[in-house]
Design brief:
Blueprint (H helix, E strand, L loop, with lengths): L8 H34 L1 H37 L3 H36 L7 H13 L1 H16 L4 H24 L4 H26 L14 H33 L3 H37 L3 H38 L4 H14 L3 H16 L4 H20 L1 H4 L1 H25 L1 H4 L5
């Protein structure tokens, strides 16, 4: 366990973030390898089928993961306040709410899947593989949910190393299963989804067994699983706020994907590859945002208000340095990265993906501020401003998808996010500067 209410804020955030970063790097590394395996073994058509539905699967999994991470913020607050009884009740509520939410979401999505694929404008040639892949992902979401609950509880008390170790193990197994199920078992794109579900279930089991042996105080009793209004009144607003925040972000991406799917297979492949690389470059911002949510949650519980603003500034400085590094990487190696990720040498694929990366990377620091501030706000109790900012993003992406992309093609997709980022960061900066928790001094 790591107590983030004491010591240097920068050192605490970095120590918390490094294992989290490595874990997310392995997860994204697997995602890139998965893309490469599908593209090289099954061909560009299968990769396009997966890419055409990636916004839907990302929407569902991100809502699930973000909501559970939000539940973990409440666990972190009770941990910071050294209230073990309420902490165990919050952990019990996280297990119940996380599982129930995932099962409900999976059932609704499977019922509406044909309509959702039509809304995404997935072409008839890609529809069979796309349906098979995304249906398998949705049906097995409970495996990912169980792992996220275990990982979220461990991270809320400062342990980011253990989830990392299990994630590394599962990703290594995932690659082997990918090859076995796709290349040798002949399961096609469904094999990739099944391999991921198996390894996520294994990670969940290992995390749970570790907690029961090493930190039994993190395992809720049957009494802790009983619904309590005072616990759920804190847990649900924070968790669902984070879930809807990410949903609004990805609903905008979902709307944008419908326009991309109408631009042809090569553009779909180019954008899929570019987004995979973008996710890798965004990783430090994502990890620092996750660290800030836990950091701010623990310090709010401990009433260490001054440390909250110190931690935010520390994370901003680190993000600024990474933004410079990202610009150098993209301008030196974008075409090579695209070819490695997509396994394609088509000029239309490589050129369009590289252009997307080189324009958008110039605005990454704005995106970093968005990621840091909205996670920090969730941590210190502002659930409304991040939703407002994400609503701006959703509105902007929908309007650009409807009005700009049809008229100027892929250039509309390229300029979409920089425009939206600049608009949505404004309420986050204003909300942070005027928030009383950030401005007030510590209470004794």
């Amino acid at each position: 366990m790591q107590n983030l209410t004491k010591g240097s804020p920068t050192r605490g955030i970095l120590l918390f973030s490094v294992p989290l970063y490595v874990g997310q790097l392995f997860a994204l590394g697997y995602s890139l390898i998965d893309t490469r395996i599908i593209g090289s073994i099954l061909g560009e058509s299968s990769l396009a089928a997966v890419g055409a539905t990636v916004s839907l699967s990302e929407l569902l999994t991100s809502f699930e993961m973000s909501s559970i991470a939000g539940f973990g913020i409440i666990v972190a607050r009770y941990f910071g306040a050294q209230d073990e009884r309420r902490m165990k009740q919050a952990i019990g509520a996280t297990w119940v709410a996380g599982s129930a939410m995932t099962l409900l979401l999976s059932g609704i999505t499977l019922l509406l899947l044909p309509q959702l694929l039509s809304l995404l404008q997935v072409s008839e040639s890609l529809r069979p593989e796309a349906t098979l892949y995304v249906a398998t992902v949705v049906a097995t979401m409970i495996a990912a949910s169980l792992y996220q609950v275990c990982a979220s509880v461990l991270r809320s008390v400062g342990d980011t190393l253990t989830p990392l170790l299990f994630l590394i193990l599962s990703n290594a197994l995932n690659v082997a299963l990918d090859v076995a199920l796709i290349a040798y078992a002949g399961m096609g794109v469904q094999g990739a989804a099944i391999a991921t579900a198996i390894t996520q279930a294994l990670s969940a089991l290992l995390c749970f067994l570790y907690m029961r042996r090493r930190f039994p105080q993190l395992i809720p009793s049957l009494a802790d699983l009983r619904p309590r209004r005072e616990v759920y009144s804190e847990l649900l607003p924070t968790g669902l706020s984070m879930g809807f925040m990410m949903s609004f972000v990805l609903l905008g991406t979902f709307a944008l994907q419908t326009s991309i799917n109408a631009l042809g297979t090569n553009i779909i492949v180019a954008h899929t590859g570019a987004r995979r690389i973008t996710m890798l470059l965004f990783l430090p911002y994502t990890v620092l945002g996750m660290a800030l949510a836990t950091y701010c949650g623990q310090n709010l519980g401990a009433r260490q208000y001054r440390r909250i603003s110190q931690g935010i500034w520390s994370a901003i400085r680190i993000s600024a340095m990474w933004s410079i590094v990202a610009i150098i990487i993209v301008y030196v190696a974008a075409p090579l990265c695209v070819r490695l990720v997509t396994a394609s040498s088509q000029p239309e694929v490589v050129d369009n993906a590289s252009l997307y990366l080189r324009v958008d990377v110039l605005f990454y620091f704005v995106c970093a501020l968005i990621c840091l501030l909205r996670n920090a706000m969730q941590g210190f109790g502002d659930n409304r401003t991040p939703i407002l900012s994400s609503t701006v993003e959703l509105t902007g992406k929908v309007l650009i998808a409807l009005l700009l992309v049809p008229s100027i093609g892929y250039w509309g997709v390229i300029v979409c996010e920089p425009i939206v980022w600049v608009l949505m960061v404004v309420p986050l900066i204003a909300g942070t500067l005027r928030n009383p928790v950030v401005r007030q001094k510590d209470r004794k």
